[in-house]
Amino acid sequence: GAGVSQTPSNKVTEKGKYVELRCDPISGHTALYWYRQSLGQGPEFLIYFQGTGAADDSGLPNDRFFAVRPEGSVSTLKIQRTERGDSAVYLCASSLLPPPREQFFGPGTRLTVL
Amino acid sequence: GESVGLHLPTLSVQEGDNSIINCAYSNSASDYFIWYKQESGKGPQFIIDIRSNMDKRQGQRVTVLLNKTVKHLSLQIAATQPGDSAVYFCAENIGTYKYIFGTGTRLKVLA
Asked: Rounded mean pLDDT of A7-32?
């Protein structure tokens, strides 16, 4: 079947704007993760969903970041009042339960805040 | 696509030689480990995993070694090929859903 997909692949926005990043996990994967990857670094955990609920959002850097997964499938990462420091690649991954399991990553969304 | 990591440690190997990529993990309670390969502009791709009750696991052309005493993980790639050129990350899991990724190593295969 299809892998994890993310849209858009690239997003350029201006400082202060609102952005939404979308993740379509592999069908049947209950677990969904968002990570942020800066240049030269490994992925950094942001949030974990088990089904519809955010089981752990401790990695979200501040309250400008929010993520939802209303039907337990597609997830949207929302960033308000973007700042230049938000520029990074945002990766989504999904897996079966229970953890720990192999995570399947999407190609990422490269966010650039001007 | 953009380059993943301009300032990563780099390992250069001749095509056909074996590669060894090392990783020091942080948490002695970690019990599951994964090696990922990431090519430029793509997400990390699973290579091989190992649980803490093992010290070695082999896949196709790859072997992962785990030394819990010194919290060290290594990835060995046999007969390295040009397509192996990428950034390699280890990730540790402490028994739940949360993974901690290392900073990565860039592997360059020389023809």
From this structure: 97
